[in-house]
Write a structure and sequence with these properties.
118 residues, 4-stranded antiparallel β-sheet
Length: 118
């Protein structure tokens, strides 16, 4: 008999799952929801001015979701150079597919009624 997942189990499973997608250049990109601590660490790296720039942080959020490209692990975003290298490596094609994957798989919101049903 298959175990019944609790609502907490479902949240943990969704938060730790990875999805492999392919961009228009044929590169395999592994996408996973980042830890909240990774997001906070990135705010320290980019500094107070950039971390208040919503457009910039939206792009950083996309980068944080990338785990690997063609099995080459993504480096932790610990410096401006690594951030720039990652943006350039992904290019528009990679950014596009990762953004769509985030929207399709990691941005689900629930209404109060939906939460009650779960």
């Amino acid at each position: 008999m298959k175990p019944v997942l609790t609502p907490t189990d479902k949240v943990v499973t969704a938060a730790t799952s990875s999805i492999e997608v392919t961009d228009s250049l044929g590169r395999r990109i592994l996408v996973k929801r980042p830890l909240l601590s990774d997001q906070l660490d990135l705010m320290v790296v980019v500094g107070p001015d950039a971390s208040r720039n919503d457009m910039y942080m939206a792009m950083m959020n996309v980068l944080l979701h990338v785990q690997s490209i063609d099995d080459d692990p993504a480096l932790p975003l610990t410096s401006k150079k690594i951030i720039d290298d990652m943006v350039n490596k992904l290019g528009n094609e990679g950014i596009e597919v990762v953004t769509k994957t985030i929207s399709d798989h990691f941005s689900k919101t629930f209404t109060a009624d939906e939460v009650k049903k779960k």
